[in-house]
């Protein structure tokens, strides 16, 4: 797979500007086009509607200026959330026309319930595309030079690894890392190395036996140790009252992420 069309979700100007810069960097690196998406909330109060309209116009100007400056082909889309059933539903719909979706991490600690709560995981489960989740703190104008792949044998990790191949081919270094592998899984890691080599990716393989730390913390520590700028992982899920919810490790990583995370389901 190649990255030829990237969808970036833009909501508020402060966080969206950095997210757009990252998406533009990827678009230039992979010679891809960019779709900027703003989903208009359906507010009943005129004051809220006017504020949202002002925000949308500001984001549209920002998108137009930045793609022109970067010389990237782009398309701006504004859609009413009510038309497609909600913010997440709109993102998942337009993901159909992209190879990668870029969204921001959900903010934690707010008592106000918002339409975008748990948005990243809902897009991961519903879009059918790899999703690049950008932390809401910090600036990440580039990504994918030093990649850490969190591996656990199964469909989700396999899907994430395959979706990440365009990133891995462009990376300076790739590390595949598994915590507490079984004997059979260690053999799989060597097969993974050969699989990536067939795609022109030279990967280092490493395992770790941990009993006391949370696996999510082990991954975050490894990111710090390696100086990684991108984490690739599968989105394992549990069914809860008929809905998918993120598994414990993925949820922990998304709550405490320090670098962008490429996640697939």
UniProtKB/TrEMBL annotation:
It comes from the Bacteria. It comes from Geomonas anaerohicana. InterPro entries: Universal_stress_UspA (IPR006015), UspA (IPR006016). Residues 4-135, 147-263 form the UspA domain. CDD domains: USP-like (cd00293). Belongs to the universal stress protein A family. Pfam families: Usp. This is Universal stress protein.
